[in-house]
Write a structure and sequence with these properties.
The chain has 3 helices and 8 strands. By secondary structure, the protein is an alpha/beta fold. It folds into 2 domains: 79 residues, no CATH class; 126 residues, Ribonuclease Inhibitor (Leucine-rich repeat, LRR (right-handed beta-alpha superhelix), Alpha-Beta Horseshoe). The N and C termini lie far apart (73 Å).
Length: 207
């Protein structure tokens, strides 16, 4: 019996190829002979092309891998959760086709431009903390967004968030955003949930 024989042929081939590259069997879950969740955190993977065959993948975790080219992910249109934290990724354009994404983590990547995300209208949780992103204008179309993590970025203008009705959690610690009455008025009461050190600064500014 061949390895991963309980999977469909193409899916088994993708998992075998990935195993050969990283040196051990990857952690994954399957349903009806198809891979639905794949976790490659802290692995040696550098090439994502074999993953193009995993078209029913719902969850993919690539945290702290050496992958720089994420273009093969553009075919994984059933993805709902994608974690690219601590990767060398600088181009978000391959993500524009992933319309089913609900959660996306781009923190500690090299991404500066988030305009490719503007049509990912199912996004509910988005994290691009510790990046060089400075303009969040593309986010105004993401009406389902509930949680947004902006800490340690170059963002200074929150006004695009006025158009996001469901936003309930916003982290802006270690940004250039002034914590003042004007800032608070941009958002509905209760949206801005800050960490203790930022809350202290907010109180000083409002005195």
């Amino acid at each position: 019996m061949s390895e991963f024989s309980w999977l469909l042929k193409e899916e088994a081939e993708a998992i075998r190829t990935t195993k050969e590259e990283i040196g051990h069997s990857p952690r994954f879950f399957n349903k009806d002979k198809r891979v639905t969740r794949l976790y490659l955190t802290n692995s040696n993977i550098m090439e994502l092309r074999p993953l193009r065959k995993l078209t029913t993948l719902r969850v993919l975790n690539l945290v702290n891998t050496a992958v720089a080219d994420i273009s093969p992910l553009s075919r994984l249109r059933n993805l709902q959760k994608l974690n690219l934290e601590w990767m060398c990724v600088s181009d978000a354009s391959p993500l524009r086709s992933l319309r089913n994404l609900c959660e996306l983590n781009l923190s500690a990547t090299k991404i500066k431009n988030i305009s490719p995300l503007q049509n990912l209208t199912n996004l509910q949780i988005l994290d691009f903390s510790s990046t060089s992103v400075s303009d969040i204008t593309p986010l105004r179309k993401l009406k389902k967004l509930r949680e947004l993590y902006l800490q340690n970025t170059n963002i200074t203008d929150l006004s695009p968030l006025e158009e996001i009705p469901n936003l309930s959690y916003l982290d802006i610690q270690w940004t250039g955003i002034p914590i003042s009455n004007k800032t608070l008025q941009l958002l509905e009461e209760g949206i801005l949930r800050l960490f203790p050190e930022v809350e202290a600064g907010m109180l000083r500014d409002r005195e």
